[in-house]
Write a structure and sequence with these properties.
This protein has helices at 21-40, 42-71, 75-119, 123-126, 132-159, 167-202, 209-213. By secondary structure, the chain is mainly α. The chain has one domain.
């Protein structure tokens, strides 16, 4: 979602040349801090919601176009339907691509975060990467979105009445429910993935004396 370049992965073992362990830990902390911000920072959550909202607005416009085509009896209804469908697609296509590229970028961020965290161990400093508050910030609203999306997706078709509810209207609400469910699922997945990674990070054994004493090359 953000065009900002990611911190590079650690250099291969054969060309590592940190002068001492302190320099290694300083580079590791800078890279992990930036990657953590790019992974589960509050701005990332806001960007996810904004792009999902843009996709939902596009779907609502497209659904309104379907209703115009289904209920319209004159040329103006069909003309407005075409315009609404075009606006809806113009919103859904770019926001859908942004979400897709964002998921791929998140996978790359997590991969680099794992590489930097596996480079060495720092029991005293790694505890700060647990970020339970950020995990909770991602998990709770995402869980609510997911639950409401599932409820909407199942209750709308179950409660539809012939002659009262149109097929286009039911499809519109089911689509909105699916968008909410997928958005919530993305947030839940990120929160749980980070929490599991943080648990593994802080549960490591203390640094051996041989590793404390020298630089990595």
């Amino acid at each position: 979602m953000s065009p900002r370049a990611l911190p590079p992965p650690p250099p291969p073992a054969e060309i590592r040349a940190w002068p001492d362990r302190e320099a290694l830990l300083a580079d590791r902390a800078r890279a992990m801090g930036e990657l953590l911000r790019l992974s589960i920072g509050p701005v990332r959550l806001l960007l996810l919601w904004l792009t999902a909202a843009g996709f939902a607005i596009g779907w609502a416009m497209f659904g309104a176009a379907l209703q115009m085509f289904a209920e319209g009896v004159d040329v103006f209804s069909h003309l407005f339907g075409v315009i609404a469908a075009a606006i809806g697609l113009a919103s859904m296509i770019p926001t859908g691509l942004v979400i897709g590229f964002g998921i791929a970028r998140d996978a790359e961020v997590r991969g680099r975060l794992r590489c930097w965290s596996a480079l060495t161990r720092d029991p005293a400093g790694d505890a700060r990467y647990g970020a339970p508050g950020l995990s909770l910030l991602w998990f709770l609203p995402s869980f609510l979105l997911c639950a409401y999306g599932l409820w909407l997706s199942f209750t709308v078709p179950a409660g539809a009445r012939p002659g009262k509810d149109t097929l286009a209207g039911v499809a519109l609400l089911m689509g909105l429910g699916l968008i909410l469910w997928i958005t919530g699922l993305i947030g839940i997945t990120k929160a749980v993935s980070h929490y599991r990674w943080a648990l593994r990070l802080v549960a490591r054994h203390p640094v051996p004396a041989a590793e404390r004493g020298g630089a990595h090359r």
